[in-house]
């Protein structure tokens, strides 16, 4: 028995399912009957090197996390103030 060969189009579509449609490698592997190892190789070979974009995405994500943490802290502080005010009005 020989090794199964896949067309470049098949490989591109498999990679597209992972990169554009958000399916996991395991899901695509099971769905298409391809080993996860092969999919990872195809991802590396077909996907262009976009480390600059990845670095920017990482920076954007970190910035968003910091913004959301600050917003959460402010919201929690406002909640605590409102809780205290509610308790104070009940005691009056």
From TrEMBL:
Instruction: Please give the name of this protein.
Output: Transposase
- Biological process (GO) annotations? DNA transposition
Task: Give the UniProt keywords, A-Z.
Answer: Coiled coil, Plasmid
Which Pfam families would you find in this protein's record? HTH_Tnp_1
Tell whether Transcription is among the UniProt keywords. Answer: no
Q: Which SUPFAM superfamilies match?
A: Homeodomain-like (SSF46689)
Q: Which GO terms describe its molecular function?
A: DNA binding; transposase activity
Q: Which organism is it from?
A: Rahnella sikkimica
Q: Give start-end ranges for the coiled-coil region(s).
A: 58-92
Q: Which domain of life is it from?
A: Bacteria
Family, similarity comment: Belongs to the transposase 8 family.
């Amino acid at each position: 028995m020989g090794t199964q060969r896949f067309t470049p189009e098949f490989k591109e579509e498999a990679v597209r399912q992972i990169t554009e449609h958000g399916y996991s490698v395991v899901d695509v592997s099971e769905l298409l009957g391809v080993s996860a190892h092969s999919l990872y190789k195809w991802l590396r070979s077909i996907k262009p090197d976009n480390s600059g974009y990845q670095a920017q995405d990482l920076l954007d994500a970190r910035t968003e996390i910091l913004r959301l943490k600050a917003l959460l802290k402010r919201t929690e502080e406002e909640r605590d103030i409102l809780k205290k005010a509610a308790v104070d009005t009940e005691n009056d």
